[in-house]
Amino acid sequence: MEKSCSLLVHFDKGTPALANEIKEALEGSDVEAKIEAMKKAIMLLLNGETIPQLFITIIRYVLPSEDHTVQKLLLLYLEIIDKTDSRGKVLPEMILICQNLRNNLQHPNEYIRGVTLRFLCRLNEAEIVEPLIPSILENLKHRHPFVRRNAVLAVMSVYRLPQGEQLLVDAPELIENFLSSEQDNSSKRNAFLMLFTCAQDRAVSYLFTHIDRIIDWGEQLQMIILELIKKVCRANKGEKGKYIKIIISLLNAPSTAVIYECASTLVSLSSAPTAVRAAANTYCQLLLSQSDNNVKLIVLDRLNELKASHREIMVEMVMDVLRALSSPNLDIRRKTLDIVLDLITPRNVDEVILTLKKEVVKTQSGDHEKNGEYRQMLVQAIHTCAIKFPEVASAVVHLLMDFLGDTNIASAMDVAVFVREIIETNPKLRVSIITRLLDTFYQICASRVCSCALWIIGEYCLSLSEVESGISTIKQCLGDLPFFTVSEEVEAQDSSKSSSQSAVSSTTVSSRRPVVLADGTYATQSAVLETALSPPTFVQGSLASIGNLRSLILSGNFFVGAVVACTLTKLVLRLEEVQPSKTEVNKATTQVLLILVSMLQLGQSSVLTHPIDNDSYDRITLCMKLLCNTGDDVRKIWLQSCRQSFVNMLADKQLRETEEIKAKAHISNAQPDDLIDFYHLKSRKGMSLLELEDEVQDDLKRATGEFTKDGDDANKLNRILQLTGFSDPVYAEAYVTVHHYDIVLDVTVINRTKETLQNLCLELATMGDLKLVERPQNYTLAPESSKQIKANIKVSSTETGVIFGNIVYETSSNVLDRSVIVLNDIHIDIMDYISPALCADLAFRTMWAEFEWENKVAVNTVIQDEKEFLNHIIKSTNMKCLTPLSALEGECGFLAANLYAKSVFGEDALVNLSIEKQADGKLSGYIRIRSKTQGIALSLGDKITLKQKGAA
């Protein structure tokens, strides 16, 4: 690692070979033994061994060999041995190999010639190469392309040597002539690369001379042409117009690699609408034609970048991008939908919705295991479209309502939330949505979806027929009352048998008491036989035989029972307003009261293993009291305030989204004294439409400050860390740059003494999930001079790390004594890896339940205001507060908020802050951090502990 190495060979560590054994094998006549011995010698040299005694043996016994493998290994050996002494002079024994190399360059076998020419590309000693130049040039005319292509590379490497221009004065002219007559694509590519590297003007001249034939050149040569264009355009932006035409012509090349590179080059060089549109079209074609999922994801990333800078052009490509949904990969589908949702306009929303509807229908028929998750993504996408453009909601809402009974609960819940929002924002759809919801309500099987649907029924059933249908639908789903019937005799028998019998599977009951039917009348028969099912049977009840609400309540889900009670109460209150007949109102009230009493009776019975919870009991009891004694104030709260709270929530959500869009749209402007070119005053002679467009776009970029978006230099000063003291003989400071997966330390070392410092080395070590990429090198520092040293550190996870180390050096006055200066520690902050992110409440709760690592930090601060403390934690942890501001309003002495952030590695960080103001004015409570990995939970906890104390 201390010196440059052009050869890397896998070495299986084992017993090292002895030099004497290798020497004996090389001196023998067995070719296979020689091959193995040469491999062992190369392995030893690559691992730092020096075997000087082998050189003469190899010259005597290996050099004359005619075996191709032996000759190839000989060249590898010559490549890695030291060919110079400590003063940089070529060793005299190297002259021995020159004649062999000349013979190889004139060998009748093209393989020997080719590998020798390739070996010469790695030689940096002009004294060895100089006598071989005539033989190298002769190989430019060899009949075999393998030799010619390596001869061109050898000419280029010789020309790039420090004295190469004197050794091969006419090399560019030779290669240009060679390029004009060459037919092999690989040889032409190498020749053009040589001109591109060593004589750029000749490469440009050749390019424009043969501009009509570029499309017919091979893929390798076309890729080099694109590299040349990028290099020339960066150096001379004024000429990029004519090069852009070449790139656009290459978009028709048969190679997909060339097409992709053309599109990337176009976007990087030009902002002209024609050029960007051509690049976007190319990306869309690649998206459809390539079968590799990784390629599709890369292309989607490029399209996403285009969307950020050229949204107007990407809007035209929405339908082409949507065709990527045909891929079965969920990551591709998710990324495609994310791009499309940002490009929706009133002009294309109908087409997009039609496509999404077709995809939703496809998920019903397919048997793919990920269909449920894909359907959820589609529902969320349609929801987003409908919120932005309410007029399209009518086209999709009824289709989506078929999925309220979806087995994928997350998908069904998304549909329910969508319907709830649409029915409020689109009053015209209210009647049709309520009718459809009442028709499909029996299909809903998930408790959370049922709760949401019941709330919709309670709030939006307004007319007499809708209210009556709502009550009737809920009664049908609850089934016949009571929920269970047990006679006194059977209860006594059950109680006596309970000591010896653990469970009763079913009990047949004969009741001679009058039976009250569901409509409140008495039954005429003298006995009713019922089967009281045991609790396990309740849970496993078939929805085909009993209603969905009944099965949920019998399984012990009394939260749904409380929602049913509230919904029925709202419907009865509204029935009082729309039903002129007082008798019908009283009848409905009695039926609802009977249902509520039956639920309470079930909850307090011994039939269920878990009795009703206190919250649900209080809620149902409140509904019963309300139905028995209604008033105007209570009616206003239940029928108006509930919906108004929902309207306020939607308005607050819309406001937050609008503010985020405004924040993203904020663009920094240029300075007032920046130079602006007015294209109307420019000469248009000889300029094509594309060149003119490009000039205009560049001027617009200057005017809007897009060229001045680089980071402010003043901010860089905050990232400089002092590593040593001002009184130390060596002063060092580091500028820390944190990228996604690595950290770059740019260390400035200054020799403050009057002596030359030799073998100065910056030795670093790390703690945490940090890893040094390179070994340190030794430097020599002149008196009062400075040196820039770069160190790369790889980061593998999101957690706080520490970099520490020292500077070691020797002085010219005392070489034997090494001085050491210990450096200050560099703490890598977790804040550099996490950024605020948005997350749905449902997703937050799901992750909170799944994540296993939790760190609980007690609140310890002198801040006495709850909101001030919350803002301090948000600022300190670089997280996003998911709890809306409207929920944090008011003064009650308590505050609970959820915070969320995402790391550059895709890890989630969840924080819940729950605080309470004590009687003495101090804040108490806990901050809980949850994550999938231990590092984030511990590092964030340490950060919060440090910062909340620092706030004191």
Overview of this protein structure:
This protein is α+β, with helices and mostly antiparallel strands and 952 residues long. It has 40 helices and 18 strands. Strand 3 and strand 4 form a beta hairpin.
Average pLDDT level: 79
* Termini gap: 50 Å
- Contiguous low-pLDDT stretches (5 residues minimum) are 499-545, 706-712
Overall 3D form:
elongated
Instruction: Give a count of the beta strands, DSSP E runs of length 2 or more.
Output: 18
CA-atom Rg in angstroms:
40 Å
Bin the helical content: 40-55%
Beta-strand fraction estimate: 5-15%
Keywords:
single chain, alpha+beta, about 950 residues, 5-stranded antiparallel β-sheet
Short description:
The protein is built from 40 helices and 18 strands. It is an alpha+beta fold.
Please give the structural blueprint.
Blueprint: H1 19-27, H2 31-46, H3 54-62, H4 68-80, H5 95-105, H6 110-120, H7 126-129, H8 133-138, H9 145-159, H10 164-167, H11 171-181, H12 185-198, H13 200-209, H14 219-235, H15 240-250, H16 256-269, H17 273-289, H18 293-309, H19 311-315, H20 318-322, H21 330-341, H22 349-365, H23 371-388, H24 393-401, H25 409-425, H26 430-440, H27 447-460, H28 464-478, H29 488-497, E1 506-511, E2 528-533, H30 535-539, H31 548-554, H32 558-578, H33 582-604, H34 614-628, H35 632-665, H36 689-704, H37 713-717, E3 720-722, E4 730-738, E5 742-751, E6 757-767, E7 770-772, E8 778-781, E9 786-795, E10 801-811, E11 818-822, E12 826-828, E13 834-836, H38 841-850, E14 853-858, H39 866-877, E15 880-881, E16 894-903, E17 908-917, E18 923-931, H40 934-950
